[in-house]
Specification:
There is one protein chain. The protein is an alpha+beta fold. The chain has helices at residues 11-46, 56-71, 98-111, 175-179, 186-208, 237-246, 249-252, 261-268; strands at residues 94-95, 119-122, 127-132, 157-162, 165-174, 225-228, 256-259, 271-276, 279-284, 301-302, 305-309, 323-328, 333-337, 342-346, 355-368, 374-378. The strands form 4 sheets. Strands 1, 2, 5, 13, 14 and 15 form a 6-stranded mixed sheet that branches. Strands 6-16-12-7-11-10 form a 6-stranded mixed sheet. Helix 1 (11-46) crosses helix 3 and helix 3 crosses helix 5. It is globular, with a radius of gyration of 29 Å.
């Protein structure tokens, strides 16, 4: 009727059309699954059970929360049996909304160097983890040989409790600022400010913490094996290579260097005397042909492994006991985050200065559960 002749598709063209349709359906299904997984992770991180950010209850709670932050009136009410600690101002504060929690967590991860490579898990409370102690027995007893224990001292496996300790952050905001209707990005400002200072504080404890009301740090006691400098107070590239190869190969391939920027600067300035003709010339080793495979073109890799700046590690040596660098698989360091973060509004305490205090309380723990894949380059006694 329209002057066109309908030509039947060939079998291979039909098959191609069918395959393209199935591929499109698979792609759409994959996107839906990824979207659902993202929602589940967001809810888990925020500590809500069955309360999605898109739900009306969550939106109402978030609106009430920020109204309470600005005015101090009509505090938010969270009706859930899943939250294990009190949620009233008199009994401990209010749970921060999911969106704010997500922003804080995201920014803490950006500011905290150890957290970027460690094993991080979200759990509501202390946990017991299994760790290697004396190792496990491996033998070749033959067909009729006795199956006996080879390791006689200590248990083959041990358990370690990772305790979550309170970490607080106090934010002071002027009443005038809170009263302004035109104020924007308050959520972004508070989340960024809290995250930056929280990350700095936790970073110190992840390195130097002694386990007393704080996480146990990587350098606490003798949990990690020390590799000593060859010469007192004199780090060399030989020492760097020595600590690198002291780490088991399975961990070396995933290894990360942790050190103070002062030592990266020190390494970058090491020179060697090279004679050109009759004139001795100083040559910087950092980018030299001979050591090009040791130090990267920029101070962010050593022997091909990334370097993270840890300002809490020592920047000077003198006593013979300082820890200069950590190298190894930081997945052996466990960090536990409690998903329940609460905030208290402190009106009266700072009223005389025209300010309102907001006290955030986090619960987190840290411990080097698997130190076998980690080593420390330490100064040697004179």
């Amino acid at each position: 009727q329209n002057g066109k002749i309908d030509v039947p598709l060939k079998d291979n063209e039909k098959e191609k059309e069918k395959m393209e349709k199935e591929e499109l359906e698979r792609k759409e299904l994959k996107e839906k699954i990824e979207g659902l997984e993202k929602q589940i992770l967001e809810m888990k991180a925020a500590g809500f059970k069955g309360l999605d950010q898109k739900d009306e209850d969550a939106k109402k709670y978030e609106a009430k929360f920020w109204e309470w932050v600005k005015t101090g009136k009509e505090p938010p009410e969270l009706k859930t049996d899943y939250y294990p600690i009190n949620t009233t101002a008199a009994q401990g504060g209010y749970l921060i909304p999911q969106k704010l929690f997500g922003k804080v967590v995201e920014k803490v991860a950006q500011y905290s160097p150890i957290r970027q490579y460690a094993f991080v898990t979200t759990v509501a409370g202390d946990i017991d983890v299994v760790q290697e102690n004396a190792g496990i027995d491996v033998a070749w007893p033959g067909e009729t040989g006795a199956r006996t224990e080879g390791i006689t001292s200590g248990s083959l496996l041990a358990s370690e409790k990772i305790i979550q300790y309170p970490q607080t952050a106090l934010v002071l905001v002027s009443r005038k600022m809170l009263a302004q209707d035109t104020i924007v990005n308050l959520e972004d400002f508070i989340s960024g400010l809290v995250a930056r200072y929280v990350a700095k504080s936790e970073g110190t404890k992840f390195i130097l913490g002694n386990g007393s009301n704080c996480p146990t740090g990587l350098l606490h006691g003798t949990l990690l094996t020390r590799v000593k400098l060859g010469i007192h107070d004199t780090p060399t590239f030989d020492d760097v290579k020595k600590v690198y190869y002291s780490v088991p190969s399975y961990a070396r391939s995933r290894g990360v260097w942790c050190t103070n920027d002062a030592w990266m600067l020190f390494l970058s300035k090491i020179k060697t005397a090279v004679t050109t003709g009759g004139t001795p010339v100083e040559k910087i080793i950092w980018n030299s042909y001979a050591f090009g495979d040791v130090i990267g073109p920029e101070p962010n890799t050593i022997l091909g492994r990334p370097v993270i700046s840890c300002p809490d590690m020592t920047s000077a040596i003198s006593t013979g006991s300082e820890d200069l660098m950590i190298f190894g698989d930081l997945k052996g360091y466990w960090i536990t985050d409690n998903p329940y973060v609460v905030v208290q509004r402190l009106d009266e305490l700072y009223a005389a200065s025209g300010k309102v205090g907001f006290l955030f309380e986090f619960l987190k723990g840290g411990y080097p559960v698997d130190p076998q894949g980690l080593r420390v380059l330490a100064n040697t006694a004179s």
